[in-house]
């Protein structure tokens, strides 16, 4: 009886066991290759043989195409028809190809298609891999070509198509496959068994049959002692290596909490914590470099401090001034001479700072350390390495994210292939199930997402709403930036007035320095709420688009605020530090950056307490609602980028600022993690954020790191250092420290004049700096273009695959119509009654 066949290529009921192997073409084309090989050397008898076979087929039934199928299709059709009886009622009835029942002749043609044989029949798979094992055996032994055999000894294609693949034939093929597996080497046998598209039970049975029917293995008593020792060493080394890899995997930071967040809240919230983890590694690298080459040498050889050093009162933890001013934390503490242990031991540690950078009584050159050169080189090299890491991370992230991802195929892989059967721990199983469930929800939301087509009036209305929202955001950002500009100018004038008069309340004056960081942090806390209100007005259909728009608006605010602050520090304070009573303006700027970093962290804690925890309690106890606040990804990520920019700006003035940033990020991770798990809920509309991490790395590289690098470079190349503190005192610019070292090196050894010329051309000339930056940008551009080209090619290939599927549907429909036209009226009546 005829039966319906589903031709929907995107149907979700397709199982993995129905998929054909990748190299099935070799099995189905085996007779074609044989005929092609015989065609070049055949005689007249071959043509007569084929003609006779063709006449026999026409005499049997002109419409019966079953004889054109490969051996075993009749048996497989019967088995497949029984297997699909229960599935007939659930197929998609909306497909036009499924509206009618196909004839038996059409069904035989369909069953002979390669895509409907291999993968559904275990016998076909065994036959395929029997041919493979034969090929592997033939590679190791020479055999004559088929053209060298007489025609009577060649394999004939007579009877092909009319054989019936019975169970006995399948068993014989299986026995032959076991035979061939026994004759292979151990490595080839294992690879062949692994590649077979059979279930684990079938593979286990084949392996056991191969072992039982094979030769008895040599007992351990017959193995030489040297071989046994070699095997034990190899096994022990392999187990040690696997144990080491498992130990390294267990050392991954925050592995279990990240899985828990991913399972409950999806990839959007997970991207925030992954980005925080990335920033932690960047600051750890900066801390290692500055601590090893700046802080540690200076701590071992401390300079002589002036009399009347201020004592610790506790306020320094907030302001960063007072007691901390005369420590290795700030720029002004570092000396401007070459450190040498022998010179320090001679005079009892009375270090003297001279303008030439070297003490006159230091005759010994052993264990010398040029602190100005080390300070300049450490900052420059650390920024250069950070730039390389950022560019590499961004390029790699572009390659992972911007690719063609078919949601249907990802959904199938996630449902069928995402479970890790090595996981046996109950908590790990629960985490994995939650993670897979959340990812499936995101993929289903992406698959079911429909783009609504709006009318002209609706489009005009939405454009007006978007324009109004952006106008509100830009106007509020401009107003806040102007407020920060004038307030910073007011604070600068207050410092000028207080420097002219004697300090009456030094603690109060020191606490007043927190006013500017408090105002800036308050604006950064409140203005994103206005941005969220504007986004509520716009009513975006896609949650991911809403997140990206919020990131853009928060980025506009943060960049504007940092631009005003950099002008305040490098344009007002550094231009004339004496009018505000500061002899070491670098230390003052470092203290400002420390205050901004600390106050920003305090306001983040307050927002977590009042904005998430208390709002949850108010919603549950007062409003009697179960709704919890949703984690604001855009605002929290931009706060991380803002804090990291402050850390990069301050590493020149505060070498220990990366350590402060590390402590802040560690506390922030655990606080945010606890708050998200207790006070927040998952987004009501699940969405998959495939490119969020790439966007974060890009924002960290270009607006953040590039801006900080420009400010640091401008400070080192253009601004005049303080004349009474720091490693660059008595120099016109910080850059001259490297130039003087090269000149002294050339003076001591004239053969190194090439190094001096290379320094003047490569370092002093900013052209090569711009060339290096241009090369990085060109590499990023070309990589993005290559990825974009790959995306277009993949899109074209996917379109071609869809068109080929439509072609197959068209050909099958035409075949059915031709068959119906050539039927007799009696046959048509019989087919209608059978339906």
Automatic annotation (TrEMBL):
- UniProt membrane topology term: Multi-pass membrane protein
| Gene Ontology molecular-function annotations | mechanosensitive monoatomic ion channel activity
**Start and end residues of each stretch annotated as Disordered:** 59-91
Instruction: Name the GO cellular-component terms.
Output: plasma membrane
Q: Where is the composition biased (Basic and acidic residues)?
A: 74-90
- Output the InterPro entries linked to this UniProt entry: TMC, TMC_dom
Q: Where does it live in the cell?
A: Membrane
Q: Which domain of life is it from?
A: Eukaryota
Keyword set for this entry? Membrane, Transmembrane, Transmembrane helix
- Membrane: present as a keyword of the record? yes
Q: Where are the transmembrane segments?
A: 269-296, 373-393, 468-487, 513-534, 555-574, 594-615, 692-717, 767-784
- Domain TMC: start-end pairs: 584-690
Return the Pfam families for the record. TMC (PF07810)
Name the protein family.
Belongs to the TMC family.
Descriptive protein name: Transmembrane channel-like protein
The species is Gasterosteus aculeatus aculeatus
């Amino acid at each position: 009886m005829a039966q319906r066949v589903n031709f929907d290529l995107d149907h979700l009921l397709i199982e993995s066991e129905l998929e054909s192997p990748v190299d099935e073409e070799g099995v189905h084309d085996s007779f074609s290759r044989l005929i092609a090989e015989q065609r070049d050397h055949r005689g007249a008898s071959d043509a007569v043989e084929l003609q006779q076979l063709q006449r026999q087929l026409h005499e049997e039934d002109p419409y019966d195409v079953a004889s054109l199928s490969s051996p075993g299709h009749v048996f497989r059709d019967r088995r497949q028809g029984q297997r699909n009886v229960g599935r007939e009622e659930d197929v998609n009835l909306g497909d036009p190809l499924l509206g009618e029942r196909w004839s038996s002749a059409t069904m035989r043609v369909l069953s002979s298609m390669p895509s409907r044989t291999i993968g559904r029949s275990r016998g076909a798979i065994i036959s395929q891999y029997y041919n493979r094992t034969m090929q592997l055996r033939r590679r190791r032994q020479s055999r004559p070509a088929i053209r060298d055999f007489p025609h009577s000894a060649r394999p004939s294609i007579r009877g092909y198509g009319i054989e019936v693949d019975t169970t006995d034939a399948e068993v014989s093929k299986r026995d032959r496959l076991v035979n061939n597996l026994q004759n292979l080497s151990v490595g080839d046998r294992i690879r062949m068994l692994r590649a077979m598209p059979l279930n684990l039970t079938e593979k286990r049975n084949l392996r056991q049959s191969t072992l039982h029917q094979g030769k008895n293995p040599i007992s351990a008593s017959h193995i030489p002692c040297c071989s046994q020792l070699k095997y034990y060493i190899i096994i022990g080394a392999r187990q040690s290596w696997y144990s080491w890899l498992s130990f390294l995997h267990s050392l991954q930071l925050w592995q279990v909490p990240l899985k828990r967040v991913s399972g409950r809240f999806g990839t959007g919230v997970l991207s925030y914590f992954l980005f925080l983890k990335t920033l932690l590694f960047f600051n750890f690298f900066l801390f290692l470099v500055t601590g090893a080459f700046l802080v540690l040498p200076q701590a071992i050889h401390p300079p002589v401090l002036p009399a009347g050093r201020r004592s610790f009162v506790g306020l320094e933890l907030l302001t960063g001034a007072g007691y901390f001013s005369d420590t290795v934390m700030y720029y002004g503490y570092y000396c401007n001479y070459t450190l040498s242990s022998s010179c320090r031991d001679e005079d009892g540690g009375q270090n003297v700072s001279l303008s030439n950078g070297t003490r006159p009584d230091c005759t010994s050159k052993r264990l010398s350390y040029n602190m100005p050169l080390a300070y300049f080189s450490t900052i420059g090299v650390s920024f250069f390495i950070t730039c390389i890491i950022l560019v590499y991370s961004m390029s790699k992230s572009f390659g992972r994210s911007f690719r063609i991802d078919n949601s249907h195929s990802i959904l199938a892989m996630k449902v069928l292939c995402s479970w890790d059967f090595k996981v046996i721990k109950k908590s790990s199983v629960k985490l994995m199930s939650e993670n897979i469930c959340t990812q499936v929800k995101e993929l289903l939301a992406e698959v079911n997402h429909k783009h609504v087509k709006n009318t002209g009036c609706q489009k005009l209305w939405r454009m007006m709403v978007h324009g109004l929202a952006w106008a509100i955001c830009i106007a509020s950002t401009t107003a806040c930036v102007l407020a920060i500009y004038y307030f910073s100018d007011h604070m600068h004038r207050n410092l000028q007035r207080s420097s002219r008069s004697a300090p009456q309340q030094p603690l109060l004056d020191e606490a007043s320095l927190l006013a500017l960081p408090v105002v800036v942090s308050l604006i950064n806390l409140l203005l994103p709420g206005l941005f969220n209100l504007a986004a509520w007005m716009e009513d975006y259909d896609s949650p991911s688009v809403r997140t990206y728009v919020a990131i853009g608006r928060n980025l506009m605010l943060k960049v504007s605020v940092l631009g005003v602050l950099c002008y305040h520090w490098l344009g007002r304070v550094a231009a004339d530090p004496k009018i505000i009573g500061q002899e070491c303006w670098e230390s003052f700027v470092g203290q400002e950056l420390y205050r901004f970093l600390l106050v920003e962290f305090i306001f983040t804690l307050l927002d977590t307490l009042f904005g998430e925890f208390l709002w949850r309690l108010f919603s549950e106890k007062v409003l009697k609602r179960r709704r919890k606040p949703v984690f604001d990804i855009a605002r929290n990520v931009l706060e991380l980028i803002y804090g990291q920019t402050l850390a990069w700006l301050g590493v020149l003035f505060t070498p220990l600022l990366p350590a402060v940033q590390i402590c802040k990020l560690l506390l922030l991770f655990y606080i945010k993690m606890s708050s998200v798990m207790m006070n927040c809920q998952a987004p009501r509309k699940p969405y998959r954020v495939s490119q969020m991490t790439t966007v974060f790395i890009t924002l960290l590289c270009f607006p953040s790191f590039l801006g900080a690098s420009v400010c640091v470079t401008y400070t080192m190349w253009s601004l005049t250092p303080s004349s009474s503190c720091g490693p660059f005192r008595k120099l016109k610019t910080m850059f001259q420290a490297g130039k003087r070292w090269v000149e002294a090196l050339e003076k001591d050894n004239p053969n190194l004049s090439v190094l001096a010329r290379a320094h003047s051309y490569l370092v002093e000339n900013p052209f090569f700096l711009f060339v290096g930056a241009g090369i990085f940008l060109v590499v990023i551009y070309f990589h993005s273009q290559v990825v974009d080209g790959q995306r277009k090619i993949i899109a074209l290939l996917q379109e071609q695959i869809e068109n080929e599927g439509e072609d197959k549907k068209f050909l099958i429909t035409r075949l059915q119509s031709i068959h119906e036209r050539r039927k007799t009226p009696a046959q048509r009546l019989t087919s209608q009654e059978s339906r």
